[in-house]
Design brief:
By secondary structure, the protein is an alpha/beta fold. It is built from 12 helices and 15 strands. Strands 3, 4, 5, 6, 7, 14 and 15 form a 7-stranded mixed beta sheet that branches. α4 (124-137) crosses α5 (154-162). The longest helix is centred in the last third of the chain and has 15 residues, at 276-290. The mean pLDDT is 93.
């Protein structure tokens, strides 16, 4: 089968299309589902892994990709997915950019008919992270205001799509350039401001009150101004550091303003909470099926350009979710 393989830690340019052995039922195990992959999602950890900078370092050579969508080829008797089902799946860290994937049933989710394979491949990693951030860690309540950093990126566009149906009455998008404004508005932002000077813009938009929740996958030098932009009782959700720098925090800011800085480690939570993924999907899938939550509209690259797709995350040129097509 065809797959993307990274054999050296030279960054996204190391991604190459290769022929490798596909998994078989005998080798994968009797409790494993085989899926014919149509598309695979790309996420920021893929870029970090390609340089050996992520906390999990797979042995070389490895197949990148944490999520995919496709059709079930074979499944154990009694599994909740069966041959012919359209599914999305989570490898969590590696292995998705291949024409066939073997996976445990609990990491597979039936796709609504209205969701394409390309959209499905870009759905789980970001949407389940954001769902966990807003619901579990952020305690989003009806009528609250959410601010989203990196709003034209994968986590950002997911936050813009999910926050309103999960209860937010207003969603303020923060983008790094003027050309990303339209992306944020089209994805559902109530208001859009530029990162440069966002604190003052947010203060004006909220009449000096601030926002209830900040979704921050960026980190870097905007972190302190984010804390200053919180309303009393507000929560800053720390999701990642695409800005490169991991910020530090003076905890007296939390005390004086009664605000929280909250870590959002979705992957670690999933590993320590069996069944949590399916609980999340039980809430998210009906919203997708009904149209209350729109499916992502990803930027799709052919398999031969997978390195460019990964580089778009590293270089922060991606607008929305990025997906690689395999069929």
């Amino acid at each position: 089968m065809r797959a993307i393989q990274i054999a050296e830690l030279a960054g996204p340019k190391a991604a190459e299309v290769v022929e490798i052995e596909e998994p078989t039922e005998d080798a994968a195990g009797e409790d494993t589902v085989l899926v014919d992959v149509h598309a695979a999602g790309v996420a920021f950890p893929d870029a970090l892994q390609s340089r050996g900078l992520y906390q999990y370092k797979p042995a070389l050579p490895y197949v990148p990709g944490a999520e995919f969508a496709g059709v079930v080829r074979s499944a154990p008797e009694g599994a909740h997915v069966q041959p012919g089902d359209r599914v999305a799946g989570l490898t969590m860290l590696c292995g998705a950019m291949a024409e066939v994937v073997a996976l445990q049933p609990e990491r597979l989710f039936k796709l609504p008919d209205s969701v394409s394979f390309e959209s499905g491949a870009g759905l789980l990693f970001n949407d389940l992270t954001v769902h966990f951030a807003l619901r579990t860690r952020g305690r989003l309540a009806d009528g609250e205001t959410v601010l989203v950093h990196g709003a034209a990126g994968g986590i950002g566009t997911s936050s813009l799509r999910l926050a309103p149906p999960l209860g937010a009455s207003r969603v303020i998008a923060v983008v790094s350039s003027q050309e990303k404004v339209d992306v944020a508005r089209a994805t559902g932002a109530t208001d859009v401001v530029l990162a440069d000077g966002f604190k003052d813009a947010v203060k004006e938009l909220t009449g000096g009150r601030g926002v209830d929740i900040i979704v921050d996958p960026v980190g870097g030098d905007r972190f302190t101004d984010s804390l200053r932009s919180l309303a009393p009782g507000g929560r800053l959700l720390v999701i990642g550091f695409t800005g490169g720098e991991i910020p530090t925090i003076k905890v007296n800011r939390l005390l004086l303003n009664n605000v929280d800085a909250v870590g959002v480690g979705w992957g670690a939570w999933v590993l320590s909470h069996p069944g949590f993924l399916q609980q999340q999907w039980a809430e998210l899938e009906p919203l997708l099926a009904s149209g209350a939550v729109s499916a992502p509209d990803p930027e799709v690259y052919p398999l031969a350009r997978a390195g460019e797709a990964i580089a778009a995350l590293e270089e922060r040129t991606a607008q929305g979710k990025v997906v690689v097509s395999l069929r």
